[in-house]
Amino acid sequence: MTTVLLLTATETAREDPSVTDWVTAAAAIVALALSIWALAFNRRSAAAAEDAAVTSRQASDHARTAAEAAEKATRVELDREHDRRAPDLSMATWQLNKEALDPAEWRDLYTFTVARPYLIKAIGVWAGGARKELDVKPERIGFGTEVSVVVNTRGNAAPPTSVELLFWPYRPRRGQAWFCACGRPASPDDGDGAGHWIREITVPRLG
Ligand SMILES: [Zn+2]
Fold this sequence. Notes:
8-stranded antiparallel sheet; 25% strand; alpha+beta; binds zinc ion; 39% helix; single chain; 2 domains
């Protein structure tokens, strides 16, 4: 637009040299006015762009906060489900099994009943830090039945001081499959063999 005005002014000046000065001055004033307008417009645009950037940043902050809150709520819910599916050991008992004729074969059993099938491993932990896998019956899998961990055989020098019980959800080939979606190891082969549920049981002094 500035160019058009200047051209018009130049042409007018060529036709009538007497008006050259005021035309030039007028063109300069128009050009200056346009520059000021353009500057103000650019500033307004920059301010508007900045406002838009702030609004967008706030929106993304809100979205992130909402996503984090949703993730936290999901985590809490998953952990609640995880706890709900945990084996209940509150009714577990210690027994001395005297079935064998030889008292050296008598066994200290830690017995509990599971409400759903788990894969179970039991690790005996001795005072010096030694660890050894213990027998779990029946066949290391609890089908909602009574499970016994053979914690010690009386002929052994010393019983473990504690037992680490590891549980995983067990999916039978038949029957209802179940699992826990919390993300902890799904089986003994998952990761470093850590249990999905881990329980530390202190071995009492048995008579
Ligand atoms: Zn879980």
